[in-house]
Amino acid sequence: MQDSFDITTLIFIVLAVFVVWRLRSVLGQKTGNEQPPPFDPLARRDVPPLKPGNSKAEQDNVVRLPGTNGARPEPATPPAERWKDFAEPGTPMAKSLDEIARAEPSFDAATFLEGAKAAYEMIVTAFAQGDRKTLKDLLSKDVYEGFERAITERERRGEKVETTFVSIDKAEMAGAEVQGKNNAQIVVRFLSKLITATRDASGAVVDGSPDTVVDVTDMWTFSRALGSRDPNWQLVATEAGQ
Q1: 221: burial class by Cβ within 10 Å (0-12, 13-18, 19+)?
Q2: Secondary structure class of 193 (helix, strand, coil)
Q3: Which of 60, 138, 189, 201 has its CA 20 to 30 A from that of 37?
Q4: Domain that residue 195 falls in
């Protein structure tokens, strides 16, 4: 009985060794169909050394845009047409804008006009509210003094102004020049719609109408010292436009 058990056990051992040998013979060989290990985006990757005679730029894996050939792209708008929607080429205003842009290459006419529109609404609203602090930051000294006198006289009479912006229909450059070495001035024509009324101390309307929309045309001149660290333009002159 013991001999029978020993023979059976020996047979199983031989079979197990055979199976293990076959598995190793199969699993230990590469067939070419093996799957690569999972990609680890955080794993460190060594940069291969440069080949002799090649620069780093030549060996980088760069995706180039069609038609660029690695060169710097051309400006979207040629310099000669940069003022296309703002001033006629060759006019004094276009030449003045060129002079401003030479002193400050970042100058952009569209951005300037957006800022001028914002300043226009802020100044008109601040004047109606008697907000001297806001006005002082946006106006030149002479213009501020004129606005401040008007506000003081209005307060002396006990009057209040109610102004509501309906829209700014248009803001366009009407002139530009550089005075002296670095004093740039740009005239902007504003076409706007406002509701404005002045009430006396008793609340009665003494000027304008709280219910009527009026068309307003203003010609405002903004000025700034080119090269200044202060990016803001100040209002230096106002007049009613035609």
Answers
A1: buried
A2: strand
A3: 60
A4: 88-240
> How many residues in the chain?
242
Q: Indicate whether 45 pLDDT > 50.
A: no
Q: What are phi and psi of 129, to 5 degrees?
A: -90, -5
Among candidate residues 230, 235, 232, 228, the one with its CA nearest the CA of residue 103: 228
In a domain, 74, yes or no: no
- Secondary structure element (H or E) that encloses residue 115, with its range: helix 109-129
Dihedral (CA of 67, 69, 73, 79) sign? negative
Query: Which of 171, 200, 201 minimizes the C-alpha distance to 187?
Result: 171
Amino acid (one-letter) located at 110 = A
In the structure, what pLDDT confidence band is assigned to residue 67 with cuts at 50, 70 and 90? very low
For the chain, how many structural domains are there in total?
A: 1
Amino acid making up residue 26: V
Cβ-count burial 112-131 (b if 16+ within 10 Å, e if not): bbeebbebbbebbebbbebe
3-class DSSP assignment, residue 32: coil
Whether pTM > 0.70 for this model: the answer is no
In a domain? residue 112: yes
Q: Domain for residue 18, yes or no?
A: no
Task: Dump pLDDT digits (tens) for 159-215.
Answer: 999 999 999 999 999 999 999 889 999 999 999 999 999 999 999 999 999 999 999
The pair of structure tokens assigned to 20 is 């293990």
